[in-house]
Design brief:
This protein has 215 residues and is of the alpha/beta class. It has helices at residues 13-24, 38-48, 64-74, 89-97, 110-121, 132-139, 156-166, 171-178, 182-196, 201-210; strands at 4-9, 29-35, 52-55, 79-84, 102-105, 126-127.
Length: 215
């Protein structure tokens, strides 16, 4: 079986070492290099000819988004899988436009990371579960559509939380699904109550379901 050659780019040594140990122990995957910043990763792509680059976004000298754009423009056979803490719409879309074949949040399980690598190597695209909806909307042309969105007064995070509230999730379950702290969820829930003029959780859920959330 041909091994998938992987280059890891992250400015935190503990992350590089962890991914090196994780991926190096998997059958069919070979880690061919570790880069500490965007400039290093460009050089190592030339030197090691990887199949996949696992790329952080926030790195010194050259960020992961620009490094991804340069790699995919110059090396058509090299696929990039983003592994980062950033989940805002603009960053996700910039990665897609830059040619990324996958986008995972740090905190993703080992199975999810290796699945993304294997899928990208096979020509597919993989995005973490919490990002799948916005990525699908982007490809359908709906993410920036003119159609009115329910609850425009809410932030993106509050809408995510409200969707899960309407689906019957507890605060702890929401925190786990969104990879955020329980405090972040509590703050979002409080903001939802205030902005929707809801007396409590039950009323907020009713309003959300009437708008089509939670289905």
């Amino acid at each position: 079986m041909t091994e998938i050659r992987v280059l890891v780019a992250d400015d935190h040594q503990i992350v590089r070492d962890g991914l090196n140990a994780l991926l190096g122990a998997l059958d069919g995957i070979e880690v061919v290099g570790l880069a500490a910043d965007g400039v290093d990763v460009l050089h190592l792509v030339e030197e090691t000819a990887p199949d996949i680059v696992v790329m952080d976004i926030q790195m010194p000298r050259l960020d992961g988004l620009e490094a991804t754009r340069r790699i995919t423009a110059r090396h058509a056979g090299v696929k990039v899988v983003m592994l980062t803490m950033n989940e805002d719409d603009e960053t996700v879309l910039a990665a897609i436009r830059g040619g990324a074949s996958g986008y995972l949040l740090k905190g993703s399980g080992a199975d999810e990371v290796q699945h993304a690598i294997r899928a990208a190597a096979a020509g597919g695209m993989v995005f973490g579960a919490t990002l799948a909806t916005k990525v699908a909307a982007y490809f359908s042309g709906a993410l920036r559509s003119e159609a009115p969105q329910p609850f425009p007064e809410l932030t993106d995070r509050e809408r995510q939380v409200l969707q899960l509230l309407a689906a019957g999730r507890s605060n702890d379950q929401i925190a786990g699904e969104l990879y955020v702290s329980s405090k972040t969820v509590r703050n979002a829930v409080s903001g939802i109550y205030a902005k929707l003029h809801a007396a409590g959780r039950a009323e907020a859920i009713v309003k959300a379901r009437e708008a089509g959330y939670g289905r």
